[in-house]
Design goal:
It is a single chain. This protein has 301 residues and is of the alpha/beta class. The chain folds into two domains: 208 residues, CofD-like domains (Rossmann fold), CATH 3.40.50; 81 residues, no CATH class. It is 41% helix and 17% strand. The strands form two sheets. Strands 3-2-1-7-8-9-10 form a seven-stranded parallel sheet, with helices on both faces. α2 packs parallel to α4 and α6 crosses α7. The protein is globular.
Length: 301
């Protein structure tokens, strides 16, 4: 933690948390962090090129709004009418399949030519309890080396095996200053859960973000995916995820894993296990994740 963050966190109720990632995993982390954090900042990958987001990105050259929309829903005031309907999908006509939140973000971006401003405006409209930043100021294309050779796009990377290098086009995209400031002032940085390469690593290994994560004194926590999660096509290998982060220049202080997770191969990173799975065993339970993340932070103070 920085000196300002350290002074702030003497009160255990004052915890500044930055969460990085994308998709459903980041949204679940935000639902959990709002139960214990006093300040929340979401940093959301812009590599999505599938579904509604991919269509809007291709047709209108706007940043993919889907992962941002999920974060807005997770942090919206519970009484916000708009917040309650961001996830509603149009079910017919030319807009069939598009969520209301995607259309709103895309429309405001086209009107103002400023995606970051559009995100901030919708966050204000729904009474979001934290700040939400796109990880980059411009849409990025994810490129990776795999057992099948070079693959490009989030969809292709998610389907590939043996990913061992992730990079971006453009190679060093600009990052909002609010992202770097939040990481610098954070008490705890949470990475994951979610699709490891295309959400977690995609947001954390951006050159500017990677440097900020290396310099911060915040506690850096990797929330391991749960085996069987729809975010993981293959069985979760937490050890290989840690190795991949190291290969991309990222250091983790704590790995938070479900009690049923096999972490026997992890020897050089502090691992905390807790009952994190929901009753279906497919994703993280919000309340359990909140309790575990808070305890991980307090145990290190």
């Amino acid at each position: 933690m920085t000196s300002s963050a350290r002074n702030k966190s003497t009160d255990i109720q004052s915890i500044a948390v930055v969460a990085l990632g994308g998709g459903h995993g980041l949204a679940r982390t935000l639902e959990a962090t709002r139960l214990y954090a006093s300040e929340i900042t979401a940093v959301v990958s812009l590599g999505d090129d599938g579904g509604s987001s991919g269509t809007l990105r291709e047709e209108y050259a706007v940043a993919p709004p889907g992962d941002i929309r999920r974060c807005l829903s997770a942090l919206a005031d519970h009484d916000s009418f708009l917040g309650q309907h961001l996830e509603h999908r149009v079910s017919d006509g030319s807009l069939d399949g598009h969520p209301v939140g995607n259309l709103l973000l895309a429309g405001l971006t086209l009107a103002a030519d400023d995606f970051e401003a559009a995100v901030a405006e919708v966050a204000d409209l729904v009474g979001a309890v934290g700040k939400i930043f796109p990880a980059t100021k411009v849409p990025v294309t994810l490129v990776a080396e795999s057992d099948q050779g070079t693959v490009s796009s989030q969809v292709a990377i998610d389907e590939a095996e043996g990913i061992h290098e992730l990079r971006y086009l453009p190679p060093d995209p600009p990052v909002p200053s609010g992202v770097l400031n939040a990481i610098s002032e954070a008490d705890q940085v949470v990475l994951g859960p979610g699709s490891f390469f295309t959400s977690v690593l995609a947001s954390a290994s951006l050159p500017s973000v990677r440097r900020a994560l290396g310099a911060t004194e915040a506690q850096r926590v990797l929330v391991a995916n749960i085996s069987g999660s729809p975010d993981e096509r293959l069985p979760v290998d937490v050890s290989s995820h840690i190795d991949a982060m190291a290969e991309h220049g990222l250091k983790i202080d704590v790995v938070l894993a479900d009690s049923a997770q096999d972490v026997s191969q992890i020897t050089d990173t502090h691992v905390v296990q807790a009952d994190l799975a929901d009753r279906h065993g497919l994703s993280h339970d919000r309340d359990r994740l909140a309790q575990a993340l808070r305890q991980v932070y307090l145990s290190a103070r």
